[in-house]
């Protein structure tokens, strides 16, 4: 199968986790799919689901370019690497051709960062992927969620839902993130990093 690469959005499966901060990566994949449906050139095909370790789509991101695989692991966050490794092995995708979208405590809501490789910063999804792939050298799309208010508990914060007042900012981030990934697909790392890291909402 001729593909351009693999974009993974991290999150936890199940309605109880829908639109929580920790599922920002899932929300990004959903936004990519919705955007593709609005583009006349784009085709999206679901490749798997149900009892598999992941939900997977083959989707056109850029006109005239080979499609990308879009994935939402269904293994829960701490075991995300099992799903990513299964996809990468079956479709022969190298880590350098992967982008992992995930929530980031160290960035405020309304900011995002794009980078290749690096540490896991305590993120269990990234830790699992690094362990399963045997390398940290994959791209990361870091979507800021900010830290809990003073004295707040981190687990409750990341598993809490965005507030109603956050909605416009979340939507703006997702829209810009889509453009950032398109920039990556067409112009490469440097242009994507400049666009994504400069974003403010």
Describe this protein's structure.
- With 201 residues, this protein is α/β, with parallel strands linked by helices.
- Helix content is 36%, strand content 19%.
- It has six helices and seven strands.
- The protein has a seven-stranded mixed β-sheet, with helices on both faces.
- The radius of gyration is 16 Å and the shape is globular.
- The N and C termini lie far apart (38 Å).
- The model has no long low-confidence stretch (mean pLDDT 93).
Radius of gyration based on Cα positions: 16 Å
Supply the helix-strand structural class: alpha/beta
Shape: globular
Q: How far apart lie the N and C ends?
A: 38 Å
Q: State the order of secondary-structure elements, H for helix, E for strand.
A: EHEEEHEEHEHHH
What's the story with the biggest beta sheet?
A: 7 strands, mixed
Uncertain segments are none
Physical arrangement of strands within the biggest beta sheet = 2-3-4-1-5-7-6
Overall mean pLDDT: 93
Number of helices: 6
Query: In percent, how much strand structure appears in the residues?
Result: 15-25%
> In total, how many beta strands?
7
Helix content: 25-40%
What's the quick description here?
Helices cover 36% and strands 19% of the residues. By secondary structure, the protein is of the alpha/beta class.
């Amino acid at each position: 199968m001729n593909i351009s690469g693999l974009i993974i959005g991290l999150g936890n499966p199940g309605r109880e986790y829908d639109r929580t901060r920790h599922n920002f990566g899932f929300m990004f994949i959903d936004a990519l799919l919705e955007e593709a449906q609005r583009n006349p050139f784009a085709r999206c095909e679901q490749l798997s689901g149900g009892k598999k370790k992941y939900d997977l789509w083959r989707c056109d991101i850029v006109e005239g370019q080979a499609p990308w695989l879009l994935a939402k692991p269904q293994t829960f966050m701490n075991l995300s690497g099992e799903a990513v490794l299964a996809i990468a092995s079956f479709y022969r995708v190298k880590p350098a051709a992967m982008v992992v979208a995930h929530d980031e405590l160290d960035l405020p809501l309304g900011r995002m960062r794009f980078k290749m490789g690096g540490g896991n910063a305590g993120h269990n999804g990234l830790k699992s992927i690094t362990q399963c792939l045997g390398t940290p050298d994959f791209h990361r799309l870091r979507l800021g969620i900010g830290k809990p208010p003073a004295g707040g508990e981190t687990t409750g914060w990341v598993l809490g839902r965005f507030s109603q007042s956050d909605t416009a900012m979340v939507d703006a981030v997702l829209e810009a993130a889509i453009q950032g990934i398109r920039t990556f697909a067409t112009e490469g790392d440097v242009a994507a990093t400049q666009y994504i890291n400069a974003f403010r909402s």
